Recover the amino acids of this structure.
């Protein structure tokens, strides 16, 4: 069976067994048009779920913090105007009409321990009007290492430290504007993590949270999300939070590329011709040209629904809205997953994907994209198709470079990493400076993404890389290597004891429900 999939910045045809199963995400559901977003937001703010209307929450003299996620989501980046620009512009208009002064409004990108957004990125997301009106004095990135901004709110009843920004607790209202593609994001994670520090994020981003329970990609049954919720509820004792959640559809590809996310029976005649010729055309292009093509992708997402109100009242409705866009039903669990990973990652915006992210994105994200139970059997095998270039962005991925050079040569075990390296990286003055001043991910960040793979690293019998010219990167990452997919499938059969193969076509995104 021929299967078109990614391998870095390439699209390749690979041979799967004739009886392999290939899953495609549901077609993009119709969403709101740009001109429909402001009235939809108005309606949500006039009748929020679980809270009073906006007009009863703020007025003259009120201090308002408008918070928003960084450009990790939606992912890939959204075609302009970004929905956050449209919603925040409307929100600011409403605040002005209610008597809130411009001087009492602050905008903050809730980057947590991600890299800070550069000015050009903020302008792409928020538009020229908001930037000219608020940047830089009233619009900035949250800084989790700013001692003058961080407040300590004590601990949860489980002993988890609760730290956040002064802006959260000193505002009369925090409005968190969120665009949500998958159930991982939004809800209690918004303020509690987006404005969290190393001390308050480390308790839930640690390997013990996922050692025995796989869920990191949705709240239900997740120890990680349970910890986040406890921290969030402690925060809510000190801050009034209204969330605006836009559940996004699956329109990742613009019209001329939509065929990439379709099974053959949904392709038009013209799309079939393009589909057959693409692997040959890609081979004729140099890597730099292919990189430019894929990294220029902008997505025509649209919101399926916009809701406002309390975290508890809104987020469950958001997940209900997302489920038909994401859910794919699998009749059983499989022995082997074949997954072609593109040169794209929410943690490599504006950069190449690095070797650490190759493994952590597939085991931490893709393996965990299920609703009820893993779609691979215990003892199964994951085969990753990617060239795994040893490339690290000199600014954004400074901590990842050191993680590759200093941690992985010693261990790939999450618990040993935590015990022997985590604290030194998180407190390292050079990495703290790079996070604060040079747009780098925090020193703790590469640990967090590796920890999300804790469950599959124990659950699976092997992870095999296909694409690198030799086994050097695989050895460093603590996984296996094969010179070809055919060879990898043979290795997987020996390891798992079965040959039931599944492949996922992502993006767009999907979550599997496993029957039985």
């Amino acid at each position: 069976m021929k299967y078109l999939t990614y391998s870095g910045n390439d699209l390749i045809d690979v041979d799967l067994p004739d009886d392999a199963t290939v899953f495609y995400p549901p077609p993009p559901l119709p969403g709101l048009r740009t001109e429909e977003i402001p009235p939809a937001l108005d309606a949500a703010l006039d009748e929020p779920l679980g809270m009073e209307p906006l007009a009863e929450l703020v007025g003259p003299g009120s201090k308002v913090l408008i918070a928003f996620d960084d450009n990790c989501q939606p992912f890939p980046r959204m075609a302009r105007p970004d929905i956050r620009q449209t919603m925040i512009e409307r929100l600011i208009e409403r605040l002005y009409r209610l008597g809130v002064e411009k001087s009492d409004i602050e905008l903050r990108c809730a980057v947590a321990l991600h890299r800070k957004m550069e000015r050009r990125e903020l302008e792409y997301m928020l538009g020229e009007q908001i930037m000219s009106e608020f940047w830089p004095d009233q619009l900035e990135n949250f800084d989790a290492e700013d001692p003058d901004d961080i407040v300590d709110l004590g601990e949860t009843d489980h002993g988890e430290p609760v730290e956040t920004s002064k802006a959260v607790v000193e505002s009369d209202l925090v409005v968190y504007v969120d665009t949500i593609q998958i159930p991982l994001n939004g809800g209690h994670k918004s303020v509690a993590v987006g404005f969290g520090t190393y001390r308050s994020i480390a308790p839930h981003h640690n390997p013990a949270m996922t050692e025995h329970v796989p869920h990191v990609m949705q709240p239900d049954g997740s120890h990680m999300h349970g910890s986040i919720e406890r921290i969030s509820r402690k925060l809510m004792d000190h801050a009034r939070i209204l969330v605006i959640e836009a559940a996004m559809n699956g329109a990742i590809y613009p019209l001329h590329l939509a065929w990439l996310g379709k099974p053959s029976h949904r392709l038009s005649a013209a799309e079939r011709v393009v589909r057959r010729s693409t692997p040959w055309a890609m081979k004729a292009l140099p890597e730099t040209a292919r990189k430019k093509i894929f990294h220029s992708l902008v997505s025509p997402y649209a919101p399926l629904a916009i809701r406002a109100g309390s975290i508890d009242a809104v987020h469950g409705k958001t997940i209900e809205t997302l489920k038909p866009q994401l859910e794919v039903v699998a009749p059983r669990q499989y022995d082997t997953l074949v997954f072609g990973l593109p040169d794209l990652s929410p943690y490599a915006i504006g950069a190449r994907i690095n070797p650490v992210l190759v493994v952590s994105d597939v085991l931490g994200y893709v393996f965990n994209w299920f609703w009820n139970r893993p779609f691979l059997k215990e003892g199964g095998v994951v085969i990753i198709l990617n060239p795994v270039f040893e490339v690290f962005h000199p600014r954004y991925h400074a901590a990842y470079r050191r993680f590759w050079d200093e941690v992985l040569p010693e261990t790939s075990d999450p618990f040993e990493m935590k015990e022997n390296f985590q604290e030194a990286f998180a407190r390292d003055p050079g990495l703290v400076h790079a996070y604060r001043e040079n747009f780098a991910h925090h020193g703790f960040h590469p640990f967090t993404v590796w920890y999300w793979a804790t469950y599959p690293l124990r659950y699976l019998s092997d992870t095999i890389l296909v694409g690198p010219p030799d086994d050097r990167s695989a050895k460093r990452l603590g996984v296996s290597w094969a010179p070809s997919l055919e060879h990898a499938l043979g290795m997987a059969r020996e390891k798992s004891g079965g040959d039931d193969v599944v492949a996922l076509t992502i993006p767009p995104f999907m979550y599997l429900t496993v029957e039985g």
